[in-house]
Amino acid sequence: MVDFEKIELMMKEVRVLLDRIRVQFPDLSFAYTGDVPIQSDEQAVLGFEMLTSVSGVLLVGLGVDYGIQIASNYHGYRLQGMDIDRAMSATYRRAGTGVVLAALTTSVAFFVLAGTGTMAFR
């Protein structure tokens, strides 16, 4: 497991070191990059960590995915000539169980993530 507090402490030390270098070499231009510094900067500026920002994207993506499953099944049944009521019933019989089970397993995963203490789950 990644210890975000240690990463944040490390990045604070890196910033202090870079500030010292800038004082000694004012004409020197440099920067740092990569996942860790970017995540650290986002947390410092925005007040939340990577898991928080990714959680929203995941939830939207999952909602779209479930919607696509339902819509594509319904559309297929309508193309086969079923009326609206029969197409909806067939859609929920065919895709409904899978979508519900996928949503439940995803919910369990998010409940486990709630134990991490990240801001997304407070």
How would you explain this protein's 3D organization?
With 122 residues, the chain is mostly helical. It folds into two domains: 1-47, no CATH class; 50-122. Helices cover 77% and strands 0% of the residues. The protein has four helices and no strands. The chain has helices at 4-24, 35-46, 50-79, 84-114. α3 packs antiparallel against α4. The mean pLDDT is 81.
Query: Span between N and C termini?
Result: 19 Å
* Helix-strand string: HHHH
- Using only C-alpha atoms, the radius of gyration works out to 24 Å
What coarse outline follows from CA principal-axis ratios? elongated
Average pLDDT level = 81
Which range does the strand content fall in? under 5%
Structural domain tally? 2
Please provide the count of β strands. Answer: 0
Query: What is the helix content?
Result: over 70%
Taking pLDDT < 50 over at least 5 consecutive residues as the criterion, the unreliable ranges are none
Q: Name the structural class.
A: mainly alpha
SSE blueprint and pairings:
Blueprint (H helix, E strand, L loop, with lengths): L3 H21 L10 H12 L3 H30 L4 H31 L8
Helix pairs in contact: 3-4
